[in-house]
Amino acid sequence: MRVNIGFLFLMFLTWLAACGPAAPVESPEILEESDSTKAPEIFMETPPALSTKAGGQAIPTDPTHTPPPLPEGYPVAPAPPPTPIEGYPAQSLTAPLVEAYPDNTGSDGFVWVIRPLGEQCADPDQSQYADLKEAVAGLTAAGITVGEAEMTNLMVCSACGCPTSVHFRIQVETTDVAAAESLGWERE
Fold this sequence. Notes:
Layout: H1 5-19, E1 29-30, E2 42-43, E3 50-52, E4 58-60, E5 110-116, H2 132-141, E6 146-153, E7 166-173, H3 177-182, E8 186-187
Antiparallel strand pairs: 1-2, 3-4, 5-7, 5-8, 6-7
């Protein structure tokens, strides 16, 4: 049995990192007790160094120290305006409003409608359309103008009665959406 020395060295370094000494923690040190009935003396570490600001006010140089609050009525400087970067368009602070859920109507007047292939735990022969060609033919036979058509997989619940993950996804004209919804299709 041959042992890889590099692997053993890596394992040793991992063990050292995991079991080595922890980083020092800033906490009070307890000195020895001279008498068992006397409470231990606790000494804090040296306080942070102080620097003197103009006006004689002592300010700690410790970066974790929060500065004192500003006096009331103290003016707050406004943020500087953004500077444009060469080659990029200037950014406007008043951006035009954009709808959170824009209408899915395409520029050509079509809307996507969707319908599951079938239902889980149901007999596959019970689905209305066997494939995409039949789904398109069914909509066309109902007088609905059809654009693009495709099959897609969606996340669905995994239980009897839930739709299958395979769905028909077909574009219909905006004026035919109500007719498609009456046939069991849903607007996407």
